[in-house]
Design goal:
The complex is a heterodimer of chains A (269) and B (488). Chain A has helices at 3-32, 49-62, 64-69, 71-96, 100-104, 106-132, 134-139, 142-163, 169-180, 191-206, 214-217, 222-225, 248-254, 256-262. Chain A has 269 residues and is mainly alpha-helical. By secondary structure, chain B is mostly helical. Chain B contains 21 helices and eight strands. A four-stranded parallel beta sheet of chain B has the order 2-1-3-4. In chain B, helix 12 (241-254) links the parallel strand 1 and strand 2. In chain B, helix 2 runs antiparallel to helix 9 (154-167), helix 12 (241-254) packs across helix 21 (477-484) and helix 14 crosses helix 16 (378-384). The longest helix of chain B is centred in the middle third of the chain and has 19 residues, at 193-211. At the A-B interface, helix 1, helix 3, helix 7, helix 8 and helix 12 of A face helix 2, helix 3, helix 5, helix 6 and helix 8 of B.
Chain lengths: 269, 488
């Protein structure tokens, strides 16, 4: 076997998968290991857990906060993420539970292709926007463009393969099954598939080290996941330390005459 | 959205702290320096990086927010300082990036390996200059956070970043002058006990002239039921004066057993904007005074950032406040359950409850000369969620009440642009630019009275209206309450 095929078919898939899972876990553990010294949600923050759950669900399913601020970006971002979700789900069905399509209906199998086109359109919109709008261009680093270009390439290859029947889904499925059993068979020797596959592996490895970790990090955002109850229930800061202030006695000595003019002992009743 | 690549806001820098105040406050590296000549200590980079490492390990939010921002740009046009100047570094995300790029360079794997590719940058003297400039052009109003898909809060990053600046000896005079006074004299304005007494007596005389009633304000009274803590500006006069008188009149009408204190005569807390230590110090005096006087609970006056500290930090920093009792209104019997732990109630909560129970004798016609609109201060609105109470009071004490444009109102409010340490003469040009959208919204309502519940709002808007030649009076919600009170 070609050593390159061996590496990208037998070795790097595992590296990519475990980097993604362990990397994200490491990120979450690192975040969780840092204390939350204050309770400082952004109002109007809810005061009940149900309220917090509702708010966060709206943020997750409807991108509520973004909708408040930027409608165009909301459309682009929302279509992108929904298409991404559809794509991920249909990949899992395709590869591991192919017979499910018979239950869901093959019409949906065809429809997924169109979500790929929406996916591409949304990504292109986000990329063009990043290049064209001066304010967004100013805050963009090279890595912000690269991730979009990487995604566009992966999605384009996927849509292209599907559209022209360049890949045999059954053989891909068989290969992916073998990976899952830790007993890999050679991957389909199709250049379209292999490129798509390698780029996806790069994406997997990139995610935990980058801003894409927002996919899990958003849950920990203390401005949104806390209840606005600080005056009702005390929040403890684990690294709090004592401070010294001028005492009343020191203050009294300093302003004795003035305070006595107010009244005896500084009191005016 | 246009941006101005000449960085027009870079010229606005707050003046440097006096050496004297640095010594009083025991700040690191007391020395002569200025906003153009930092005279940094020789090992400043080492100190800064050590402090940065410390803050990202102390605040989960800071590290998380530095890590997960996707640079979507939703916040870019939400900051009044950007809208007013078009300076790209005043876009919230760009402001954070000044800090994030250094964090990436020294504290992340990708930043150490890929450097500029992922936006990681070296920490240089120029970076520090940008930090001092732009981190003190954020009023920490948290408007950007409302619109961020992940709730990333620039204010929290600025709190951490200012700790780093303070550690290398950089802090603005606009904060430290007030903090030093507060920690030695008792309040930000530096009002000593005798002057405070004169102010109180003067208010009493004025109330007598206006209404014919005799009031006497208790000071430092041990065993009073309630300690009333307004921002010290209320004792000073100007647009705050009516609020003080309004509150005194109201307390008189309901026969409240209260006291004010000279030792804790400051509700406000400029330490909030400098760092944890001084925020805690200023707040601690309030707690200690409540303990010494033996009051049951504390009532807080009309002040914005004061309420960020009280609502979000006080109990955490200086609690548990077990020596106080769970606040109950002695007039209506209402239990303020939401303040069960901190034992401190906002005067608007207190007054709204009085009105709800019909305990105030009010004649809203007394404010008929005014068309009133309400400015949501950033902290009460976005930290406390105190949005309905002031409106409820206003609708009961005046006949002509109008709302502002919803885009700059309630939790979306544009702040007075003078918080966060920006209330200084040297920033007036910047602030006048930043406030313009809010001024336009106020103009559109046709109001001639801007009611607010924050001392900095009152000071700043008075200045703005004077500059823009607008015949609008600025005053507190309790000034209007005071006007409407009927004594017979």
């Amino acid at each position: 076997m070609d050593p390159l095929i061996f590496i990208i078919g037998y070795i790097t898939p595992y590296i990519a998968f475990f980097t993604l899972i362990l990397g994200l876990m490491y990120r979450v553990v690192r975040w969780l290991s840092i204390p939350v010294p204050f309770r400082l949600p952004v109002a109007p923050a809810p005061i009940t857990y149900t309220g917090v759950l509702k708010g966060m669900s709206l943020d997750f399913f409807a991108f509520r906060s973004l909708l408040k601020g930027n409608k165009k970006l909301w459309i682009g971002g929302y279509v992108f993420h929904v298409a991404l979700a559809i794509t991920l789900i249909s990949h899992i069905i395709n590869v591991y539970f192919h017979e499910l399509w018979a239950v869901i209906g093959y019409g949906w199998y065809e429809a997924v292709l169109y979500s790929g086109i929406f996916f591409l359109a949304a990504l292109s919109f986000l990329l063009v926007r990043r290049i064209v709008l001066p304010n967004v261009r100013y805050i963009s680093k090279l890595s912000d463009y690269i991730i979009l270009i990487l995604l566009i390439t992966i999605v384009f290859l996927g849509v292209y393969m599907r559209s022209f029947g360049l890949v045999d889904v059954a053989s891909v499925s068989e290969y992916m099954h073998s990976l899952l059993m830790f007993n890999p068979i050679p991957p389909p020797g199709n250049i379209w598939f292999l490129t798509h596959y390698v780029l996806a592996q790069i994406l997997f490895i990139y995610i935990p080290f980058s801003k894409v970790s927002h996919l899990i990090g958003w849950i920990l955002a203390t401005t949104r996941n806390m209840r606005n109850i600080t005056r009702w229930r005390r929040h403890v800061n684990p690294w709090d330390y004592p401070v010294e202030v001028i005492t009343w006695d020191e203050y009294y000595q300093k302003f004795k005459d003035e305070l006595e003019a107010i009244g005896p002992g500084g009191e005016r009743r | 959205m246009k941006i101005d690549m000449s960085f027009p806001a870079r010229k606005y820098k707050l003046y440097a702290t006096w050496k004297r105040d640095m010594e009083i406050m025991k700040l690191p590296f007391p020395r002569e320096w200025s906003h153009t000549q930092f005279n940094l200590p020789p090992n400043w980079r080492e100190i800064a990086l050590k402090k940065m490492d410390e803050v990202v390990k102390k605040f989960r939010s800071v590290k998380l927010f530095l890590d997960i921002c996707v640079k979507c740009g939703a916040c870019t046009d939400k900051c009044p300082f950007f809208l007013g100047t078009l300076d790209p570094n005043n876009m919230p995300v760009a402001r954070q990036d000044l800090f994030r790029s250094v964090y990436k360079r020294y504290f992340t794997l990708t930043g150490r390996v890929f450097r500029g590719l992922v936006g990681a940058e070296e920490l240089t003297e120029e970076t520090v200059e940008l930090w001092y400039t732009y981190f003190y052009q954020c009023s920490q109003c948290r408007r950007c956070s409302v619109f961020c898909p992940y709730g990333i809060d620039t204010a929290e990053i600025m709190i951490a970043a200012r700790e780093v600046l303070t550690a290398i000896g950089l802090s603005p005079r606009s904060l430290t002058e007030a903090i030093a006074k507060c920690e030695t004299i008792g309040n930000h304005m530096g009002i000593p006990p005798a002057a405070l007494l004169s102010a109180i007596q003067f208010a009493e005389e004025e109330i007598k002239e206006e209404t014919g009633i005799e009031v006497k304000v208790p000071i430092n009274k041990k065993g009073a039921e309630i300690l009333y803590v307004p921002p010290s500006a209320d004792f000073f006069g100007g647009p705050h004066w009516g609020t003080l008188k309004g509150a005194i009149k109201m307390f008189h009408q309901i026969g409240l057993d209260y006291t004010i204190s000279t030792y804790a005569s400051e509700g406000g807390n400029f330490g909030t904007w400098l760092g944890y230590e001084h925020m805690k110090k200023i707040n601690k005096k309030l707690v200690e005074e409540a303990r010494r006087l033996g009051v049951k609970w504390i009532l807080g006056g009309e002040c914005g950032h004061m309420w960020r500290v009280i609502h979000a930090f006080m109990d955490t920093m200086n609690g548990p406040l077990d020596f106080l009792e769970e606040p109950v209104s002695p007039i209506t019997g209402t239990k303020f359950e939401h303040a069960a732990s901190t034992k401190m109630v906002h005067i608007c909560e207190f007054t709204a409850d009085l009105i709800k129970h019909g305990k105030l004798k009010l004649n809203p016609d007394a404010n008929n000369q005014y068309i009133v609109t309400y400015h949501d201060s950033c902290n009460p609105a976005r930290v406390m969620g105190l949005i309905e109470e002031p409106r409820y009071i206003l609708k009961n004490v005046c006949r002509n009440y109008v709302e502002l444009d919803p885009n700059v109102n309630r939790e979306k409010t544009i702040c007075c642009c003078a918080g966060g340490g920006l209330l200084a003469d040297e920033t007036i040009e910047l602030r006048l630019k930043a406030i313009r959208p809010k001024i336009e919204a106020i103009k559109r309502t046709g109001a001639n009275f801007l009611a607010c519940i924050c001392a900095i709002d009152k000071a700043a808007f008075t200045e703005y209206f004077e500059h823009y030649k607008l015949p609008i009076t600025v005053g507190g919600v309790h000034e209007l309450v005071g006007n409407a009170l009927v004594f017979d």
